[in-house]
Inverse folding.
DNA sequence: CTAGGTGCCTGATTGC
DNA sequence: TGCAATCAGGCACCTA
């Protein structure tokens, strides 16, 4: 599923196609993908607008336009392609954004969970998000204080976007493994050393995945320029590897359910919950 | 604050 | 073999 590294990869790969382009039309093949405002209003508002900047906040991709900000959340299965307008569309294409160079940005989303938000100010959508894990202004000391105030289970806490923005199921499991912390541990029982290791692990897995252009195997086809490689798939240590040997100690990895999410870990390396 | 449930969706997996 | 029931999961929203 798309998490922080995948969205960051999209931002980097889409900039060469979209910066400076004007939106010539919008088609909402599945109007439910448009959260704010309604699809018809969005068509009228976006048409003719110039894309001035592309950025990321948590798992939101953000397009800065003349008259507002278009924020898109991919949820489970959202993907983007940039293709010639004349090329055939694909099953599950939900929103088509026509560009003034004869191409289209195509949002494809099998499960229809992804959402578009067009607002005057990005904060109207992102105000409740926690800090960016890769932002240098988030210090290890601040992260330690934030986590020590929490009594809940550490894995759901890390996935809570108001606590920290950008982690999903994959990178949470990977970070906990790297930090050797059991996913069922209570946040306020972690030692300073464990919290420091966790903070380092979160940054490491996110930065490494960005360098490898994400994990999802088939999430971006920006036809024309080089496609994103999604090579982090081959770097996963625990996610999706239940039943296979731990790459660190050889113990068989396990899968349990934590906070309703499939959770992969090494019972040897990551001790007791 | 924390935990648990429901709904949104459809392709893959499981069960008989 | 074939089809129905179940599962997966990010997030909003609700209840306790």
């Amino acid at each position: 599923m798309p998490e922080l590294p995948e969205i960051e990869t999209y931002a980097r790969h889409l900039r060469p196609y979209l910066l400076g382009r004007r939106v010539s039309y919008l088609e909402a093949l599945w109007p439910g993908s448009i959260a704010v405002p309604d699809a018809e209003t969005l068509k009228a508002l976006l048409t003719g607008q110039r894309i001035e900047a592309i950025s990321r906040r948590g798992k939101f991709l953000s397009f800065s336009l003349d008259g507002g900000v278009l924020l898109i959340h991919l949820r489970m299965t959202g993907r983007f392609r940039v293709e010639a307008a004349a090329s055939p569309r694909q099953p599950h294409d939900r929103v088509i954004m026509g560009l003034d160079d004869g191409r289209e940005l195509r949002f494809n989303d099998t499960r229809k969970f992804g959402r578009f938000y067009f607002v005057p100010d990005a904060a109207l959508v992102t105000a409740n998000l926690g800090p960016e894990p890769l932002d240098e202004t988030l210090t290890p000391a601040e992260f330690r204080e934030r986590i020590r105030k929490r009594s809940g289970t550490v894995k759901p806490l890390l996935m809570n976007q108001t606590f920290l923005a950008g982690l999903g199921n994959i990178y949470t499991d990977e970070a906990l493994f790297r930090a050797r912390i059991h996913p069922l541990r209570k946040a306020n029982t972690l030692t300073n050393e464990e919290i420091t290791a966790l903070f380092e692990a979160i940054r490491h897995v996110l930065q490494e995945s960005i360098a490898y252009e994400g994990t999802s195997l088939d999430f971006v086809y920006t036809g024309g320029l080089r496609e994103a490689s999604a090579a982090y798939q081959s770097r996963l240590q625990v996610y999706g590897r239940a039943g296979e040997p731990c790459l660190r100690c050889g113990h068989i990895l396990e899968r349990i359910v934590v906070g309703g999410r499939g959770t992969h870990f090494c019972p040897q390396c990551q001790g007791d919950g």
Summary: The radius of gyration of chain A is 20 Å.
